[in-house]
Design goal:
Helices cover 10% and strands 40% of the residues. By secondary structure, it is mostly beta strands. The strands form six sheets. It has a 20-stranded parallel beta sheet that branches. Strands 23-26-28-30-32-34 form a six-stranded parallel beta sheet, with no helix packed on it. The N and C termini lie far apart (74 Å).
Length: 492
């Protein structure tokens, strides 16, 4: 059975609602469209990037300033709407309805801040509207329910495939000028006793959704939610424009933390994420254009930043790349990778700039990671990283893996090209490069310059790779070996 707003309905009814384009109603009266899932083709929104991208040619760092100049955080009217004026009480009963009323009032008045004051407030899912800044004040905590029946169905993406599933803890669809800000805490309350436990038994639903995407089943018929085990994301604006997520702390998400989808002009600034559950990526812009992620701290159970563009045939159907992504001034602690492209990358990813970041943890596996294969396909190109400080990583500084999951068993050629690293200083890494591909795939134009890699313990791994260039680069093993003709005195 599916459930919306506490009212049970059959799967047949859910399909009928999706087919006629009706609305799902969350308890408290929030209407969420069930039709026209988050694809660019069916969106009917002016806010989603267009199919195929904007075709901008990026040569290198000389194009960085004009991309950065386009990314502007939204500004909101100086008008506050405290949730306590709409019935919310710190440490009191559920504040979902009070938050909804404050958002509605703020939106109707032309915009401003919906303010969560100091204290602990319990809430269900929150839906943002245009011109609303949800401001979680210093000393405030929003604790989100872990009861799945409180989460309505809505159009979403789950690991790069469109479907109808649980709404995110904080969502927005087809809105502009929205924000989540403040020095407060967003607590998803996920744990091994609720959301995280689903990881162990989600495989049948995961496979069913993948098969629907491969067969081209209409999105409105891909209904999950109640009775299924596909976890929601934490913050997910879809088909939105002018987004700001700033200064908040986030912990214990059911799944991915920040997941802007098919959105433009996104700023993520000063956010602190500490969430070590399964699939707990930090920030995953998917099919987005013009994104700035700066001065954030990522301590995650999966990739710190993972740039995505849809999975397999469903990603190719939507056909919107992620492009013009800037990451700067961030600290990456635990995670599978610092900055990652893929594995959901079938719509292509291009024009990624990373600078002035620090990556350091025995539990951080890679600095820069590319995940692709012959089922995903996709072109990952124009990736530029400079001024990166690496303490310790677990696998390698750069990993390009085309044997990920399905590997060569597919008809779509994976491509990585034009990757440039400059001024990377690593104090300890098993190896610099783990780069593996298969015949017919393309890894080309990898250029590393002005860098020092210390403490190397294992041989470099490179298979089926094109041009890799090094300029003014030092590889320093953990144990220095002496040439047969070197005199020991000359090493001093």
């Amino acid at each position: 059975m599916s459930q919306i707003g506490g009212n049970k309905m059959s799967r047949r009814q859910a399909l009928k609602i999706g087919a006629v384009g009706s609305l799902s109603t969350l308890a408290g009266g929030i209407a969420l469209p069930l039709s026209g899932c988050a694809s660019a083709g069916s969106a009917g929104s002016n806010f989603a990037p267009r199919a195929g991208g904007n075709g901008q040619v990026v040569r290198g760092w000389e194009d960085y300033p004009k991309i950065l100049a386009r990314i502007q955080a939204p500004v909101f009217p100086a008008h506050d709407f405290p949730i306590t004026q709409y019935g919310a009480t710190a440490n009191g009963p559920d504040a979902t309805e009070a938050i909804r009323k404050a958002i509605d009032a703020c939106h109707a008045a032309g915009g401003g801040r919906v303010v969560v004051p100091a204290g602990i407030f319990f809430t269900g899912p929150i839906v943002l509207k245009s011109n609303v800044n949800l401001h979680v004040s210093e000393g405030a905590t929003l604790k989100f329910t872990t009861d799945p029946t409180q989460y309505p169905l809505m159009p979403t993406r789950w690991e790069g495939i469109e479907c109808i599933n649980y709404a995110a803890l904080i969502s927005a669809l087809d809105q502009e000028n929205i924000a989540v800000t403040g020095k407060g805490m967003l607590d998803g309350q996920a744990s091994k006793s609720n959301w995280w436990a689903w990881k162990a038994t989600q495989t049948p639903d995961q496979k069913a959704l993948i098969e629907m995407g491969e067969k081209g089943v209409p999105v409105e018929q891909r209904v999950f939610g109640q009775g299924h085990l596909l976890r929601p994301n934490f913050i997910q604006p879809q088909r939105c424009r002018n987004i700001l997520i700033e200064d908040i702390s986030i912990k214990d998400s059911p799944m991915w933390e920040l997941h802007p989808v098919l959105s433009t002009n996104v700023t993520v600034r000063g956010v602190k994420i500490d969430s070590h559950g399964p699939n707990n990526d930090g920030c995953d812009p998917e099919c987005c254009r013009d994104v700035l992620i700066e001065n954030c701290v990522f301590d995650t159970g999966d990739d710190c930043i993972a740039i995505k563009s849809g999975k397999n045939n469903d990603g190719r159907r939507v056909n919107v790349p992620s492009e013009n992504i800037i990451v700067r001034g961030c600290l990456m602690k635990d995670g599978h990778g610092g900055v990652v492209l893929g594995s959901e990358c079938s719509g292509n990813i291009r024009n990624v700039f990373v600078e002035n970041c620090t990556m350091d943890s025995p539990s951080l596996d890679r600095v820069l990671r590319f995940k692709n294969n012959a089922v995903r396909g996709g072109i990952l190109e124009n990736v530029f990283a400079r001024n990166i400080k690496v303490g310790r990583v677990g696998e390698s500084v750069i990993t390009i893996d085309f044997l990920y999951e399905e590997g060569a068993k597919g008809p779509f050629k994976p491509i990585v090209r034009n990757v440039q690293l400059d001024n990377v200083v690593a104090n300890a890494a098993p190896r610099v490069m783990y780069v593996v591909a298969f015949e017919g795939s393309i890894i080309d134009q990898i250029h590393i310059s002005n860098s020092i890699f210390k403490g190397l313990e294992k041989p470099e791994i490179m298979a089926n790779v094109g041009r890799v260039e090094f300029q003014n680069v030092a590889f320093v093993p953990a144990k220095m070996e002496v040439s047969l003709s070197t005199r020991p005195a000359e090493l001093n």
